[in-house]
Amino acid sequence: MTALWQRQPVGIVGLGLMGGSLGLDLQARGATVRAFVHREEAAERARQRALAGEVSTDPAVLRDCGLVVLALPLDRLLAPDPGLLAALPPAAVVTDVGSVKAPVLAVWEPLLGGRFVAGHPMAGTAQAGVEAGLRGLFQGRPWVATPGDATDAEALAAVRGLAEAVGAHWLTCLAADHDRAVALISHLPVLVSAALLQTADRAGAALPQLVRALASSGFADTSRVGGGNPELGALMARSNREAVLGALAAYRQEIDALEARVEARDWDGLQTELAACARMRPEFL
Amino acid sequence: MTALWQRQPVGIVGLGLMGGSLGLDLQARGATVRAFVHREEAAERARQRALAGEVSTDPAVLRDCGLVVLALPLDRLLAPDPGLLAALPPAAVVTDVGSVKAPVLAVWEPLLGGRFVAGHPMAGTAQAGVEAGLRGLFQGRPWVATPGDATDAEALAAVRGLAEAVGAHWLTCLAADHDRAVALISHLPVLVSAALLQTADRAGAALPQLVRALASSGFADTSRVGGGNPELGALMARSNREAVLGALAAYRQEIDALEARVEARDWDGLQTELAACARMRPEFL
What we know:
2 copies of one chain form a homodimer. Chain A is an alpha/beta fold. Helix content of chain A is 52%, strand content 11%. The longest helix of chain A has 28 residues, at 175-202.
């Protein structure tokens, strides 16, 4: 049996990094892709880049789609445009790509019931916007779905088919577990890394040239995500506030424990902790 | 006038990453290089790799050297071997490559007076040992010297000539300033990053597979130095304890301030802080 994305057109709402990449990959696999974007300028550029077979600023472009992917920024996903809602085909399976899941389910499940599937492809680059989409973005990356109590099994299978068609590794979990996990491995690193930059800047204010001259690849790596997109960082903390606060509280315990070892000159204990980190890190790669 | 490293043989003590790389680069520039290493097995491999023109486990190999580079691990540098001390030529300029400077000056300046120059080439890879040395390691990297009150100007100039011969960018500062700066940009990142790994492991213990499956390139980068060499991490904290404690205290203030913004739902304030981080980070690269 063919998959839903093969039988009916796929709609994509938003053609940034996620939506554009999905459009390119799905078309390469033979899908018919129709996209709704907000601004005519983006629509024009998306047509030039052939991110979808049809690109429109009118949501009616979605009318024959069997599967619609909401590839919107999180803030717009959480406050959906009434024009978009009205244009979603009444029988279509609808999914999203947002980086937190409980708030998305809370908004969309009451609107669409079991045919809404909350999803999060864990793929990205530093780029955004209509120029960002690229082939193969999802290849080998996790695509997490967080079905709710009401989610239809068929709708879930339709989204799985789409994710696997673009080479992603499918997994499912509870929305709350997803949000706790991404707080630890995605949102916490942003804050940890930003605080490092602020410390080097402020505590290093007496020797500003020296700290900048001596910063090497270790500092560059540890500070990378803290120097990333500020809107996205603030939005993640906002959308996942409780899990982020939980992660920060847990993090502070670990920093305190390391500091206590330095304070107490417990060098063997410190080395034991660092050795555990060195053994553990490959599990996360 | 030719530089000291061109007029007389250069001695290197230890042929790990730093010593081996220096031996390769100096010989490529025409220097005569003689090396003293601890173990015959390492000496044999160093000869095969031609890290120096002469390699011996007898420190007498250093006898005609005008300039000796102590490329030893920090613990051995801070507790020098009496046999090595006795073999250092009485008129030679002696320098080191240790990653903290005040403790090194405190040990070596009383022993050698003005002809000891405390130095720190800020270059590295993840490798160590006799296989690690490579050409061009110092090219374009900072080489910091931290002269004390007693340091001879001629000795300082001799080490500068050596550093610039291998393409390093020479700078000088007070030992205490160097140690504070590296605490912020090199030692603090190790602890910040290690605490992140511990948090993901321990706070993520309820969902161990999920946190590991979802960790992406951001987590990989932020956790890299925390998963590095544990002996080196503990030794850095031990040798630079006060500056590391100062950096940790400053860091905790920054983490607390970010947490307070999340707690208070001050999303504009959080975004402003993250935007400052994004603007600031390129200054450190």
